[in-house]
Amino acid sequence: MVATLRVMVDQLVVPTEPPLVEASRDLTRALIAGAPAGCEVEAIAPAGGADIDLPGVASVRRTALPRRELAAALQLGVGTGIGGGMIHSPTLLAPLVRHDRVHDHDQTVVTVWDLRPWESPGELTRSAAAWHRAMLKRAVRFADAVVAPTHAIAQRLAELAPLGDRLRVVSGASPLGFAVPTDEVGRRRSIDLPEGFVLLSGGPASSDGLEVGFAAIAASGVDLPVVVIDVEEGHEPAVAELAAAAGLPERRLHVRGALDAADRAAVFGAALAFVAPSRRAAFPWRVVDALTLGIPLLAADSDVHREVIFDGGELVSAPDAAALADGLADALSRSLASTAAADRLAVLAGDRGRSFSWREAADKVWHLHAEL
What we know:
- The chain is an alpha/beta fold.
- The protein has 14 helices and 13 strands.
- The strands form 2 sheets. A 7-stranded parallel sheet has the order 3-2-1-4-5-6-7.
- The longest helix has 17 residues.
């Protein structure tokens, strides 16, 4: 008898956030590659949308509803035709309804990567924040387990929802095979970026910390270009205003949106340092990218960064934004003062980066479902 793990892959059909697309794709591929003997993986996808490219998947089951309608139906707990069995969702989108784990062997596990819907709901659309809050309430009632990517986020999640011993920690990782490509120079030229810069990620939202990051770079005395990636379309002027207010001239600033894995790795390949000023309770995807590629890393001290970065970069503690900017400025200046200092941080980052793996995450997911 074959045991089937059914994975929700809605992000591969209708993406909502680029990191969730990569996480859904690569976790599912790792689950397929690491399936124990007698086990297989089935994908569950909304109707319509893009084709699913998951080599080795046993089957792809399409729901009767497109993603938007499916999300609304799941929020209300109405029938969707998804059915039961072992269901794992890399997000909160899953059939969180009453089921019998003991007799029917049905189980549902969902994932929470980011606590913005609860801690900074104003940074999301009202409907998106409300959907996440509603789905977590349903998870409290019906999920067999809820996965968080760090112990720090799991602890905060436990304060938001009475999940008890159903919380599990399974970290994310950079995309499978993530490495600086051999055609990195050409890729950077194609998106019009210089060689050798300080790199940041995010947008004008207060929790992204870009204002602090810009202030730190300006105060560091480091006269290098500044590249910001993952900026949502239409938010470029707001990011430019933040940089100008911090004293960074427009000629030094290069703002880009979400990049595919190869282009993103090419960008990291020319970064002399990655600055992570955000202290939000969310999995820091770009921090993990920097660690994976061995890029000197300077970050705001936070519960999440302390756990993820550990000894792979320099953490700066500060009581407020101004002090944090000063601390990051000093750290950036020191890290780029000599080749030896930069090389040391690069080695520390690369060593820590080996701790993150979708294969290891998949093993933990299989173990979780076996335990349930």
